[in-house]
């Protein structure tokens, strides 16, 4: 169960219940994010070859979509040599796993605002980055997210423990035309 609230399309509150894991996540912008009352903190990972990453297989089964997903996973495993690739099957759960430090990065196309809203609050309040899938919504010099730059209605996002990981996730998504392959092919 995932419940999020946004003001002017910027997520400000979230609650995610993962009953099988006996975990309840809560977060309010400016007040932190928590799992079962314990403060969340993203992992310190900044390197792709040490990262545990989650991606999902889209509902779109077009040739272009399957090729994009296959090529992305191949690049993650072969070129980046990531520590591992997982898929928990629920965007909110994957995003909370990034906030908790269980995962280092997660990206997906084809998800809705209600899939992302609560998780965005968890990650940002835990010190992580949430960005568009095709451009980095993070000011590297100021070391701060640009929440107004992220479009909650975009049906796509990349999140992670560091801007370095998110930047590589975005580059990989762009390289294989991930967003267009999922959203605009049949």
- Overall 3D form: globular
Helix percent reads: 25-40%
How would you spell out the order of helices and strands? EEEEEEHEHEHEEEEHH
Structural category is: alpha+beta
Sequence stretches where pLDDT stays below 50 over 5 or more residues: none
Helical stretch tally = 5
**How big a fraction of the residues is strand?**
25-35%
Largest sheet: 5 strands, antiparallel
Q: Describe the strand arrangement of the main beta sheet, using strand numbers.
A: 1-2-3-4-5
Q: What is the number of strand segments?
A: 12
- First-last Cα distance: 30 Å
Mean pLDDT: 93
The rounded Rg comes to 15 Å
Any overview of this molecule?
It is a single chain. With 186 residues, the chain is α+β, with helices and mostly antiparallel strands. It is built from five helices and twelve strands. It has helices at residues 63-79, 91-100, 113-125, 163-175, 178-183, and strands at 2-7, 10-18, 23-28, 32-35, 38-39, 52-55, 84-86, 105-109, 129-131, 138-139, 144-145, 156-160. Strands 1-2-3-4-5 form a five-stranded antiparallel β-sheet, covered by helices on one side. Strands 7-6-8-12-9 form a five-stranded mixed β-sheet, sandwiched between helices. A two-stranded antiparallel sheet has the order 10-11. Strand 1 (2-7) and strand 2 form a beta hairpin. Helix 2 runs parallel beside helix 3. The two termini are 30 Å apart. The relative contact order is 0.21. The model has no long low-confidence stretch (mean pLDDT 93).
């Amino acid at each position: 169960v995932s419940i999020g609230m946004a003001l002017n399309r910027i997520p400000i509150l979230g609650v995610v219940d993962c009953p099988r894991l006996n975990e309840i996540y809560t977060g309010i912008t400016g007040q932190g994010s928590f799992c079962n009352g314990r403060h969340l903190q993203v992992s310190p990972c900044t390197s792709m070859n040490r990262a545990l990453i989650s991606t999902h297989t889209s509902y779109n089964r077009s040739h272009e979509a399957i090729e994009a997903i296959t090529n992305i996973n191949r690049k993650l495993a072969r070129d980046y040599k990531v520590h591992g690739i997982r898929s928990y099957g629920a965007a909110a759960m994957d995003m909370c796993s990034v906030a908790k430090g269980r995962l280092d990065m997660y990206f997906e196309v084809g998800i809705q605002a209600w899939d992302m809203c609560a998780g965005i609050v968890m990650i940002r309040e835990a010190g992580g980055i949430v960005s568009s899938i095709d451009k980095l919504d993070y000011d590297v010099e100021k070391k701060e997210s640009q929440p107004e730059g992220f479009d909650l209605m975009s049906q796509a996002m990349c999140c992670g423990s560091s801007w370095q990981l998110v930047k590589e996730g975005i580059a990989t998504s762009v390289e294989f035309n991930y967003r267009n392959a999922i959203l605009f092919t049949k």
